[in-house]
Amino acid sequence: MDTHAAHEQPQHDAIACGPPIRQLFRDVIADRLPDRMPLQAAMLFASETDPAWDDRTFLAELYNEILHQDTCQPYTADGLALLAALAVDDRIPARHRFQAVDLLFRAATVAERHLAEAWPATPQHADPDSEARACKAVQLHTPDLLARWPAECPAVRLALAGLAVVFPTDRTLPALTARLHSFMNQHPQGTDIGDYVRFVLVLAAQDESQTLAVTENLTDSYWTGTARGVPTWARALHLLGQMLTKVGAGLTRPRSGQ
């Protein structure tokens, strides 16, 4: 199947239709991915639209096409290019850039998070090949995303911090540690953001025994736990995903001017 359908779809001169966020996303993707669009771009460029779509329902359907029910499918990796393009464009409101980075984090960590949930069984809908391709795709996009840190708002920086510890490098981890200290000064331990930032810093230290201890402490207190036999990194990413969801729930509410 041809997953690149750009030649079949109208581009910048498409008739504006559908909810406003669809029109904005279409313009950004037409500019940033003009030659080879993934299959999921059809939701942006098709002339027909669902009359029930508003911004929220359209976004839910688009994101589900890319990462279907939090599982990776054969074309997930291709669709992640849409999220990466949206996440680096200043025309996209901050809350939607946050959601794009959050979905990239989830695509990159599907295998570990589902392993933690299903242990000791095999995750029911696991597709190891698709999961590996999706993870690699996110890794390729991560340097461009992290390069935007100085220009990003605090909400998107928090999402980027989660992505940075999934793909650690000798360059990014020291920089991440320094950059997160401002969050620590503003958000004490025991708050959603404060706990999230401190846990990211634990993961950035790459000390497995410390990671395990903090993971167990946090899940015992606040979060859905995982079996003790689950590999430490899988338990940690399962927890980090929960924390990012809760942090994002407050950060991504629409605000005036966004």
Key attributes of the depicted protein:
single chain, 258 residues, mainly alpha, 11 helices, globular
Short description:
The protein has helices at residues 20-32, 42-45, 55-66, 76-87, 94-118, 128-146, 154-166, 172-186, 192-205, 208-221, 232-251. With 258 residues, the protein is mainly α.
Describe this structure in words.
The structure is a single chain. By secondary structure, the chain is mainly alpha-helical. It has helices at residues 20-32, 42-45, 55-66, 76-87, 94-118, 128-146, 154-166, 172-186, 192-205, 208-221, 232-251. Helix 5 packs antiparallel against helix 6 (128-146), helix 9 packs antiparallel against helix 11 (232-251) and helix 10 (208-221) crosses helix 11. The chain is globular, with a radius of gyration of 19 Å. The N and C termini lie far apart (38 Å). 39% of the residues are buried.
